[in-house]
Amino acid sequence: MKCPFCGADETAVADTRINDDGDIVRRRRRCLTCDKRFTTYERAELRMPQVIKKNGSRVDFEREKLGASLWLALRKRPVSSEAVDAAIVRIEEKLLALGEREVSSEKIGEMVMRELKKLDKVAYVRFASVYRNFEDVDEFSKVIREVSRSPQPLGR
To answer: CATH classification of 50-148, choosing from 1.10.472, 3.40.1000, 1.25.40, 2.60.120?
Structure first.
């Protein structure tokens, strides 16, 4: 591992820890040249499916884009970062469990809506209005009636 400070190739592992879930290894390293310390993380690299967009084009799955969509819907809502991170992990796990090389953006959108419905009803309605391209107030009313009947969200 190259030192991020001086670029030297010689580093030593000072400490190794595994996270609670057992899927990430955290290593504290020390550069043998400049003696500075830094942290690295290791995780298994799993191949996420390609996303087939509405126009038929294919793009790589981007965790950051998924998170940005969730955070946009959750803007100014009282939902913890931990709850959002957990939702992202659940979506990724579901995508991997499909075992498919390609998945439609619509399928991902539906997964996002299910997670948002659990996290925050207002965020769910926000996302649904854009995702389903609401044209009039009746569509909003229908979704609001739907979420009013569902249990209280978990994301707080």
So the answer is: 1.10.472
Between CA 102 and CA 107, with CA 103 as vertex, the angle to 5 degrees is 175
CB atoms inside a 10 Å sphere around CB 61? 17
- Give the integer Cα–Cα distance in Å for 98 and 43: 20
Determine the distance from the C-alpha atom of residue 32 to the mean position of all C-alpha atoms in its chain, rounded to a whole number: 36
6 SS3 class: coil
Whether the predicted pLDDT of 155 surpasses 80:
no
- Whether 133 shows a pLDDT value over 80: the answer reads no
Q: Please tell me the distance from the alpha carbon of residue 63 to that of residue 149, in angstroms, as a whole number.
A: 31
Mean per-residue pLDDT, 132-154: 70
Q: Strands, E, within 3-145: which ranges?
A: 11-18, 24-31, 37-43, 50-52, 58-59, 102-104
> How many Å apart are CA 45 and CA 100, to the nearest integer?
16
Residue-wise pLDDT tens digits, 90-126? 999 999 999 899 999 999 999 999 999 899 988 988 8
